[in-house]
Amino acid sequence: MRLLLINPNTSAAMTASIAAAAREIAAAGTEIIARQPSFGPASIEGHFDDAFGAAGVAEQARLAAGDGVDATVIACFGDPGLDAAREVLAGPVLGIAEAAFHAAAMLATGFSVVTTMSRTCVIAERLVQRYGFERACRGIHGTDIPVLDLEAAGDALVATLEAAARRALAADRSEAIVLGCAGMAGLARTLQARLGVPVVDGVAAAVKFAEALAALGLQTPKVGDYAPPRPKPWAGWASGLVA
Question: Which Pfam families does the entry mention (predicted)?
């Protein structure tokens, strides 16, 4: 199968590292096609960034329509542009937060999220509410690690994440950790070995769920909310995407 991986920020290094993590977990017959927007922020660390990230996802989803991709993963924990991508792509489209929440809830009665900037915790909280995981998610914890610092995750950064996860497990009385950033994808196994509880990386979870849904022949319905966008005039730089 062909799986489109969209990194909503414009960091080429992060796109490459996320793609590498996805290829490591993907089935032998899965081709990972990694793309990023042609515009927007280098990292997504707030509502303003998130709005442009969503537009970038919409751009890349539109460009990929008709390319024969079987499923799509949006590799940002805010799941920006998820509904827009579902409108224009036929196959399953999964956000990594949605996938991670489902995976963690299948493993433990309660989980905690450990993410990057504390200011983004409210974005994760709103997704918990949207997806209906208020009872299973017992806490969301920011570390104030800048997203781009994850591109060169050294021992000190991993130790910071481990300490935050230990505090979260104790304070929330949870039994699993969800990593709240796609840039943490390569750290899940190390942290799981140190913590002794499931550590869920949303990129890996979304890739495996996407493979399963595609293998089942399930696609995004093209009626109701996810019907294709209605034709209408567009202005400015985006007009080429809908012509």
Answer: Asp_Glu_race (PF01177)
